[in-house]
């Protein structure tokens, strides 16, 4: 008989509540699985927001009067931390969930691991035709996954979330994966990998505990470098700097959380280096996602001089008057997109490196 069993039911991602789904639908099976392990003490770690599930578990647990079960409610806003065995052990000791090791512990598991299903439940998001939860084979190729959920446009890449933490491309579609993440995001040609990587990196800022220099400072530096590149402030040395930093992080951090971000950055650069470097060398975002790399323009043959775009522009960046073709002052425009939404004539367009020909100042409408 083992001393303890800890079942982590805190989702790594709020948008992918796999553990919560299982607890809601299979409470009795989860309790039976815990009971079958015959541990002296049993724990379920649950998000403090899931009080209804806690009540349901407590009711069902009455069927196992000789099982020592404790339900611990925690702040689930940083879900990655509870996938670390050393952090979970701190929780049952009444301390803060601060990771201190990368070592696995057989007595710590997720709800899904506890039930030992042959399938992996995964939430798929992004540029996919079918968003939501899928039950997939634990060993699957990305191509098989795409055949299941689809992609909106032309496939560009796929993010396999924590704890896998990789961004793969077209060349990886036939490689077998061992799914361990609850969250997958699909990218098509309308997505910018730099922008997606920046958003992924921001998530880790709330997960890092600050206990080790390479972890906390590494995440901070990654965020700063990615932000600079997306703001047209990138330097030619930034990509190499990211690779060097992430290589050191993988070897030096105290837990696997920050190391996973390092792996994600390295995989993104490995598969999409040209796209990322174009933001620096050519000052171009081909997907027209990074706002500093695109501009808005008013088309001469469609503008009717209605002033609707002027009315919504908080920066007064649109010049013109009634019955005159309006002109956007690029120096004042903040790329907020309000004018694009306001124009019923579809006269305003977003442009990347290729710009439409527009007058320098307002001229009378031809329509």
Automatic annotation (TrEMBL):
State the InterPro entries in the record: 4Fe4S_Fe-S-bd, Nuop51_4Fe4S-bd
**Entry keyword set:** Iron, Iron-sulfur, Metal-binding
4Fe-4S ferredoxin-type domain residues: 294-323, 324-353
SMART domains cross-referenced by the UniProt entry = NADH_4Fe-4S (SM00928)
Does the UniProt entry include the keyword Iron? Answer: yes
| Protein name stated in the entry | NADH-ubiquinone oxidoreductase-F iron-sulfur binding region domain-containing protein
Species per Swiss-Prot/TrEMBL record: Clostridium frigoriphilum
């Amino acid at each position: 008989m083992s001393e303890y069993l800890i079942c982590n039911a805190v989702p790594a991602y709020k948008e992918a509540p796999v553990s919560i789904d299982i607890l809601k639908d299979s409470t009795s099976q989860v309790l039976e699985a815990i009971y079958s392990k015959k541990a002296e003490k049993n724990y379920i770690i649950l998000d403090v927001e899931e009080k209804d599930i806690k009540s349901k578990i407590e009711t069902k647990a009455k069927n196992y009067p000789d099982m020592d079960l404790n339900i611990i409610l925690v702040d689930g806003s940083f879900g990655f931390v509870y996938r670390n065995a050393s952090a979970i052990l701190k929780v049952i000791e009444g301390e803060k969930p601060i990771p201190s090791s990368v070592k696995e512990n057989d007595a710590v598991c997720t709800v899904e691991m506890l039930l030992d299903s042959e399938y992996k439940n995964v939430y798929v998001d992004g540029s996919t035709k079918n968003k939501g939860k899928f039950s997939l084979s634990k060993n699957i190729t990305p191509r098989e996954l795409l055949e299941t959920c689809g992609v909106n446009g032309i496939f560009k890449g796929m993010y396999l979330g924590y704890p896998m933490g990789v961004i793969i491309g077209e060349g990886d579609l036939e490689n077998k994966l061992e799914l361990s993440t609850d969250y997958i995001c699909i990218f098509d040609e309308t997505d910018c990998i730099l922008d997606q990587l920046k958003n992924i990196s921001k998530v880790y800022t709330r997960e890092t505990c600050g206990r080790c220099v390479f972890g906390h400072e590494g995440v901070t530096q990654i965020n700063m470098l990615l932000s600079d590149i997306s703001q047209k402030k990138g330097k030619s040395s930034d990509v190499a700097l990211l690779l060097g930093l992430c290589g050191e992080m993988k070897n030096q951090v105290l837990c696997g959380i920050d190391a996973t971000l390092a792996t994600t950055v390295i995989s993104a650069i490995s598969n999409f280096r040209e796209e990322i470097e174009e933001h620096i060398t050519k000052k171009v975002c081909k997907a027209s996602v990074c706002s500093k790399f695109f501009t808005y323009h008013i088309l001469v043959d469609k503008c009717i001089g209605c002033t609707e775009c002027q009315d919504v522009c908080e920066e007064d960046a649109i010049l013109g008057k009634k019955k005159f073709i309006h002109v956007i002052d690029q120096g004042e425009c903040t790329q907020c997109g309000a004018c694009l939404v306001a124009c019923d004539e579809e006269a305003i367009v977003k442009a990347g490196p290729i710009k439409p020909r527009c007058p320098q100042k307002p001229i009378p409408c031809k329509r």
